[in-house]
Amino acid sequence: MTKLTSSMPCVLLTGFAPFAGESINPSWQTVSKLDDSLIAKHRVITLELPCEFHRSLAILYQAIEQHHPVLVLCVGQAGGRCEISIERIAINIDDARIDDNAGNQPIDTPVIANAPAAYFTNLPIKRMLLALHQAEIPAAISNTAGTYVCNHVMYGLLHHINQHEPQINGGFVHVPYLPSQAVHHNGAPSMSEDTLLSALKVMINEAISAKQDIKVAAGTTH
């Protein structure tokens, strides 16, 4: 068994606190299980982010500065989605339909003033997608991370990478409800915790191992 040490290259894996009346968040519920694990010879460090605009980014930046990860993968809840959603792009806008957990509700406000309109992830998203399908895990490329705290964090992460640490690979993944949540939302799809854990391991391994992405069709018509 490989002994984990602080000198190992590390992956920073984040999830969110519950929000919108939920008692749990599937992102943190699963991410937390991988803390201090070893994937592709990289130590996994996990972090729970508050579902709050701005404070979430401050905490994320602090963790990046402390741990110097080679990969940052942020995970969030997307209740209503039926598969793992690998996000392609983050846009520079906060437009909150509901308050965050601190009572903030920014509307038509830039995530970061005077910054680019959008950033694409630098993760090998097509390879990650193919690896998930080979593992028989439902997944798709998503072209919208929304305009709530998830997009806020993804945009802030990619802006930080672009401006300060281009050696870091980073991106965002949305996951469905857990079954224990879906029973309270009539007709909502769900995914088991075991499947979510397997998916995270597959994606992290692929993100670390792949040197460049592949070109396969994974777009949408609407």
UniProtKB/TrEMBL annotation:
The keyword NAD does not apply. GO terms for molecular function: pyroglutamyl-peptidase activity. Keywords: Cytoplasm, Hydrolase, Protease, Thiol protease. Gene3D superfamilies: Peptidase C15, pyroglutamyl peptidase I-like (3.40.630.20). The active site is at residues 87, 150, 174. It comes from Pseudoalteromonas haloplanktis. PROSITE patterns: PYRASE_CYS (PS01334), PYRASE_GLU (PS01333). Belongs to the peptidase C15 family. This is Pyrrolidone-carboxylate peptidase. It catalyses: Release of an N-terminal pyroglutamyl group from a polypeptide, the second amino acid generally not being Pro. Homotetramer. Pfam families: Peptidase_C15. Its EC number is 3.4.19.3.
